[in-house]
Design a protein that fits this description.
By secondary structure, the protein is α/β, with parallel strands linked by helices. It has helices at residues 3-36, 115-120, 129-135, 138-154, 170-179, 210-214, 224-236, 252-264, 276-284, 298-307, 321-326, 334-361, 380-385, 388-393, 398-404, 407-413; strands at residues 41-46, 48-50, 57-58, 61-66, 69-74, 86-89, 94-97, 99-104, 157-162, 187-190, 194-196, 218-220, 241-245, 268-273, 289-292, 310-313, 365-367, 430-433, 449-452, 455-459. 39% of the residues lie in helices and 19% in strands. Zinc ion (ZN) is lined by residues 103, 105, 163, 370.
Length: 469
């Protein structure tokens, strides 16, 4: 090799060595510096901020967001935003905390079956939709759930509690995928498999296959030991909450064992209980929340108040909601339609009465959409937020409806230290609507700005803002 070439070659080797050293020492140092640099800051300005705790309105308002948290809230002149902050001006819009759906089913999208089929199956509405959800491909199911999760978020639902019907690990895996930024969606509190006694769901299955099918969706309780074991199985799956369905087969000692075991791991227990006897089982076992609760008596509401048990109202089918979902899909014979309309009216009167009694009792309350239906013409988010107005129609003041889907829901979930209000230190989950949600609660169905964890998900007011100052 000629001397000149060797010199060039040595020089080249030296450069390579320096580049390697730079890669080894300098780049990690730069990366560390980047990690230490302050998180990105955003200043959100709007005409009004509604505080669900007090009903007070701050107008105008500015909210400084740093990283995924709220740093400051005040009138624009009070906020000291750093230079280079990104400004989002929402004009005259009203800001609220991100909405919380306390009871949903992202892994169900049941298509209403025709009336004849419902009449001829012992399981009514749940066959065949419920069965199909279990026996179809879990991969197909989780991709559908990812879509429904995104649709919830786009409608301003920044947190959901997914209470069962998601296969063995669907909701815990979707939660983790969303948290890792792989797919967009709300923050999920996942219950994993629902604890049930044999006999509630999907009865009349082929006996040779029944256990294999049921185990895909449920953990069967039979006795106190099995109840504890079921909780531990869900804990192994890293769930956030335990969901139990109470019926006449579930005993107080079984449910009390579930509650004790769950509380040992700091998990709350949500109990599906519709009839008076099941509600009493849930109260006696000191559940954390009672889901649905349609037949609660005044004496039971008093006990719930005294024990601090949440009443999670699910007015999904209030005021003929079933017909709204079913009519675009199935032919309903006129006589059946008339009977359904009559029973909807009866149920509406009962629900108006229930909502008034819950408010009077002082029991803690929240609400959940319990949405598990394919709702023609609506995204899952639109279908879910469309249930909130039912509480208003049942006589609940608008501010209490807003509390039910923000601050109250946050407390029910055990997340009051992180979500549910807009104040310094909380996670930066914000939504904005164009009008005044107190005078028109359906504004919650038309959320036009969504921020979750400090990231803008949606901004229909974008023409007004986004400038850097
Ligand atoms: Zn449900």
């Amino acid at each position: 090799m000629p001397a000149m070439t060797r010199q060039v070659s040595n020089w080249f080797l030296f450069l390579c060595l320096m580049a390697t050293l730079a890669a080894l020492f300098l780049l990690p140092a730069l990366a560390a510096q980047a990690a230490q640099s302050p998180p990105s800051a955003t200043l959100v300005k709007a005409g009004r901020l509604l505080d669900p705790r007090t009903g007070n309105v701050l107008a105008p308002v500015a909210i400084l967001v740093e990283g995924n948290k709220i740093k400051q809230v005040g009138s624009p002149s009070q906020i000291s935003a750093p230079g280079g902050v990104k400004v989002i001006d929402l004009g005259s819009a009203t800001l609220l905390p991100g909405l919380i759906d306390g009871h949903t089913h992202l892994f169900l999208d049941i298509i209403v079956s025709n009336e004849t089929e419902q009449d001829r199956h012992a399981n009514g509405l749940f066959a065949p939709g419920m069965l199909l959800a279990i026996v179809e491909s879990p991969s197909k199911r989780v991709l559908m759930a990812a879509q429904l999760a995104r649709e919830d978020l786009e409608s301003g639902i920044t947190t959901v509690r997914n209470l069962g019907h998601s296969g063995i690990d669907g909701d815990t895996e979707l939660r983790d995928a969303i948290n890792a930024g792989r797919v967009p969606g709300p923050r999920i509190l996942a219950s994993g498999r629902k604890l049930i006694t044999r006999g509630i769901y999907v009865q009349n299955l082929n006996p040779a296959l029944a256990d294999a099918i049921l185990q895909q969706e449920f953990l069967l309780i039979a006795g106190v030991d099995r109840a504890r074991e079921a909780v531990r199985q869900n804990e192994f799956q890293n769930v956030d909450v335990i969901k139990v369905s109470a019926d006449e087969n579930l005993t107080v000692p079984e449910l009390a064992a579930v509650v004790e075991e769950a509380h040992r791991q700091h998990l709350k227990v949500a109990v599906h209980a519709v009839d008076t006897a099941s509600i009493q089982t849930a109260i006696d076992a000191s559940a954390d929340s009672i889901e649905h609760g349609n037949e609660a008596t005044d004496a039971q509401l008093k006990q719930m108040h005294e024990k601090g048990i949440f009443f999670d109202l699910t007015p999904t089918f209030y005021g003929g909601g079933y017909l709204k979902i079913a009519e675009p899909i199935i032919v309903i014979p006129p006589a059946t339609r008339a009977e359904r309309a009559r029973s909807a009216e009866r149920r509406k009167q009962n629900y108006d009465d229930l909502v008034q009694r819950v408010l009077k009792s002082g029991a803690k309350f929240s609400t959940g959409s319990d949405m598990c239906w394919f709702y023609p013409g609506k995204t899952r988010g639109q279908a879910s937020t469309a249930t909130f107005v039912h509480l208003r129609e049942a006589g609940m003041p608008a501010l209490d409806v807003i509390r039910a889907v923000t601050i109250n829901a946050a407390e029910m979930l055990g997340w009051a230290d992180r979500i549910g209000v807009v104040e310094a230190g909380k996670l930066a989950d914000l939504v904005a609507v164009a009008g005044d949600p107190i005078s028109e609660i359906t504004e919650l169905e038309r959320v036009r700005f969504v921020m979750k964890d400090g990231k803008v998900i949606r901004n229909d007011f974008a023409s007004n803002g986004g400038a850097t100052r």
